[in-house]
Write a structure and sequence with these properties.
single chain, 78% helix, glycoprotein, mainly alpha, rod-shaped
């Protein structure tokens, strides 16, 4: 079985997507799309930052294992999440 790294990165952001959708549903339908998007990101920015930081720290914590494959995976995934967030 071949492991696909892209799926692991997509699954990490699911909590942020649910937060964005929830905030979007609470915006006014009468506002313009740009206003609604602005309101959504203003509401979810802090929670997205916190979840991303904790995800990156969790993966970097995995680098202390003795298994080289797990170390490489955790380094790769932690760095990718950090770069995607910036």
């Amino acid at each position: 079985m071949v492991y696909n790294r892209k799926w692991s990165l997509k699954c990490v952001g699911v909590d942020d997507i649910l937060t964005i959708i929830s905030a979007w549903q609470r915006t006014s339908l009468m506002d313009s799309i740009s206003k609604r998007i602005s309101d959504v990101y203003a509401k979810v920015a802090v929670s997205m930052t916190i979840t991303t930081i904790t995800d990156v720290l969790a993966f970097y914590t995995g680098t202390v294992t003795s298994f080289r494959s797990v170390q490489y995976f955790c380094i790769y995934t932690g760095a990718t999440l950090l770069l995607l967030f910036l």
